[in-house]
Amino acid sequence: MKKGWLVIVGMAALAAIGLGILAGCAGEGKSNVSVIVNPNVTTLGTGQTQQFVATVIGSGNRRVEWSVLSGSGTITADGLFTAGSQAGTTTIQAQSVADRNAVGTASIQVAGGGAGITISWEQTDLPVIIPKSRFRLNAIVSGSPNTDVNYSVEGTDAGTITADGVYTAPNRTGTFTVVAKSDQDPTQQVTLEVPVVANARVRWEVEGRGEFVLELRPDEAPNHCANLVSLVNSRFYDGIVMHRYEPGFVIQWGDPQTKTLPLDDPRIGSGGPGYTIDFEANPLQHEKYALGMARSQELNSAGSQVYLCLEPAPSLDGNYVVFGAVETGFAVVDALRRGDKITRATTLPVEN
Hints:
Blueprint: H1 2-29, E1 34-38, E2 41-45, E3 49-51, E4 53-57, E5 64-70, E6 73-75, E7 80-83, E8 88-96, E9 103-111, E10 118-121, E11 134-136, E12 139-142, E13 149-153, E14 160-161, E15 166-168, E16 174-182, E17 189-196, E18 200-206, E19 210-216, H2 222-233, E20 244-246, E21 250-253, E22 290-293, E23 306-309, E24 321-328, H3 330-335, E25 342-349
């Protein structure tokens, strides 16, 4: 009896041990670690990027390894995904380094092939652009809620362009290529040939008076000429009122405050474009009908205010920059007075 009892007990013990072993195995195989990926679902255009973030729960080790399970695109070690050129659904994965069984995924719908997306230039005709002058270009994206544009300039020493399309010409003449690409679909792009010429003239149309034309001297004051051309091409002077007239001396304009303030406001005469340019010494003199740049007491404080000499003003020579002169419309200039309004200023090519 004792022997049989011992056998039964022994078998029960072995069974209990076996169950314990099996239970232990099951406990070790179950993971309490999980991974959550944000955003979980998103839509991108070809070439667009999205930063994904993985959160590891249940482990002190927060590291994950990223990969693309299916579809088109690439992802960096820190979760920055770049959509590929193929349309469709892409699935990415973040795998816990602490527990390889713990993964999180995200789904990206890649808008394909630029279907329905077009891009074009707003400008049909470019104004006269001279070296170092600025002009804002604008490309328009249609067929996509994302209308952002990425601008660039082809080649070296071909000028620069800002993120919002302001092109600055190089300090040389030539024809330069500007590229605009849809941010939604970089395969959709347009190019624009921008001619940069040596010089320009400026036509001023004055309400009730007529018009006159100024010739510029970039050979003696390139920065002042580029600045004036930039302002004219941006329509800065349209609507500005001439605020200073001194018989036998000067007629002056260029304060943008004259568009909204009365001329007897004490602030008139202090306005500008929001920046200043440096003084450019040159041998040009303040002869009758000379074009000069007004400034404050500081030498490098010129901005947008200009003046025409109604008679020779040698006392100004060397203290103010002359950078052009009246070419046509002398009778109109003679008739200009304080309060006259510029309806439009435009750049013209130089006639050979």
